[in-house]
Amino acid sequence: MKHNKLTTASGRPYTENEDSKTVGPRGPILLEDYILHEKMAHFNRERIPERVVHAKGSAAFGTFTVTHDITKYTKAKLFSEVGKQTNTLLRFSTVGGEKGSADTERDPRGFALKFYTEDGNWDLVGNNTPVFFIKDPKKFGDFIHTQKRDPQTNMKSPTMMWDYWSLNPESLHQVLILMSDRGTPYGHRHMNGYGSHTFSFMNKNDERFYVKFHFKTAQGIKNFTDEEATAMKGKDPDFSQRDLFENIEQGNYPKWNLKIQVMPEAEAKTYHLNPFDLTKVWPHKDYPLIDVGVLELNRNPDNYFQDVEQAAFAPAHVVDGVGYSPDKMLQGRLLSYPDAHRYRLGANYEQIPVNRCPFAVNNYQRDGAMRIDGNGGSKPNYFPNSFDDIKIDESYKEPAQELESSIADWYDRNAENENDHYTQPGNLFRLMTDEAKANTIHNIVGAMSGINGVKKEEIINRQLCHWFRADVNLGMAIAKGLGINVDMDMMR
Question: Quick one: where's region Disordered (predicted)?
Fold first, then answer.
């Protein structure tokens, strides 16, 4: 059977459509992998003018207050002393729905936080889950397409979703979380937030630590059941936004406790899990949570479009003492997010008041649409020059980072020792209460019942194999709910 070749838009055939080119299997992505950038840049331009993902959102301003000393891990000024406060903006969102969609849909929730620090704005852009569906950014556009609308029917398609998930078992951990009642949180105030990615801290001695961020809701976890969420979609599609806005207006300010997990840099090389794999968590028994501070939301925006619709968050925006890691998904987002903002809001999106750093900003960027800051006036627009007083402060120089002395190639993200997609989802399911297990199974059966078409049986059987590998009882319960008789000998 003759097949069409996979090519770029310019017609060049290529082979590496799922794995980014990196320095060694766990090293950083190389800028030269233009297929990655072409896929992400085109994906960012698929919709105008709303966000391609996370279109339906709510936000509020607040403060972050340090309650515990973590200066042995980081020199970031916002953590410099107990009691220090930093102004913040936190935006919540659903992922797959359009701007007018219901905000109680079964979907991950975005948890995007902007800290307005004296060393610049720090954007911690995560979700309400500690993991994600994929581990390489080349897959992102393809994955999101399956969560959007079928190109023929223009309707959401369970067949597309489960076909993709069944072909990408690395998604199982996140899919299990999504199919539990955590996939339908009771508004924004009653869910946790996570940086999700592995980031890094640098202290005053230039020692590097890898770090995970956890924001634990002080309001307590509260979720809708699937039936309650479905009913609320029709009753009040803006329930989550209304709940957040009205509670803040009434002075019932929601809070989250920031905790971190810290891994010394040297341990990342020998830890039994890949610490930069976004589909995995770090077990708390190995890296317990460390208290840091309290985030409080205490002011609603005066104008939604001005402060929420125009808000732009990018994980590339870090501050001194906070850095990146070889997390492939994070590395892909470093270029993709600012590119999306420049497309959606313009080249000068960081001059919009909600995105503008409230402290001094000095650089040589000039011109572009909607330049509103005087455009540098008569000052030079090049560096170095003999006329202005802008100098480089060497005290902010980051320490050198040792990279793997490996061959740059397109490494399979699911090669041997990187392909255990079942242990953590299985452990998570076995940790659930009986009620949570029953609800999760009910939700999965309901979602998978929407699979149809000529490949229905193939997709269902493929996905059932993943559930069985995670936990036999989970697989059996789902199969029973779908009316499928399973031969256990064949499943072994």
Answer: 1-25
Q: What is the four-CA torsion angle of 88, 324, 176, 281, rounded to 10 degrees?
A: -110
How far is C-alpha 155 from the geometric centre of its chain's CA atoms? 25
Active-site residues: which are they?
Answer: 54, 127
Alpha carbons 132 and 164: distance in angstroms, whole number: 14
**Contact yes or no for 426/471 (Cβ under 8 A):** yes
| Residue 48: how many other CB atoms lie within 10 Å | 8
Which domains does the chain possess? 1-46 (4.10.91.20), 57-134+177-354 (2.40.180.10), 422-490 (no CATH)
pTM greater than 0.85 (yes/no): yes
Give the bridge partners for 200, in sequence order. 210, 323
Helix axes of 434-448 and 226-235: crossing angle, nearest 10 degrees: 60
**Strands, E, within 221-254: which ranges?**
none
pLDDT tens, position by position, 313-353: 999 999 999 999 999 999 999 999 999 999 999 888 899 99
d(CA 116, CA 450): 45
Query: Which of 303-308's residues contact partners 24+ apart within 8 Å by CB, and which partners?
Result: 306/353, 306/354, 307/59, 307/61, 307/89, 307/353, 307/354, 308/57, 308/58, 308/59, 308/91, 308/354
Q: What is the pLDDT of residues 169-227, one digit of tens each?
A: 999 999 999 999 999 999 999 999 999 999 999 999 999 999 999 999 999 999 999 99
pLDDT per position as a tens digit, 108-141? 999 999 999 999 999 999 999 999 999 999 999 9
What b/e string do you get for 147-156 counting C-beta neighbours within 10 Å, with b at 16 or more?
Answer: bbeeeeeeeb
Separation of alpha carbons 362 and 193, rounded Å: 33
Q: Does the annotation place 364 within a ligand binding site? A: no
At 415-424, the pLDDT tens digits run 998 999 999 9
Nearest in space to 102 (alpha carbons), one of 56, 49, 157 = 56
| Predicted local distance difference test score (pLDDT) of residue 42 | 77
* pLDDT score recorded for residue 490: 46
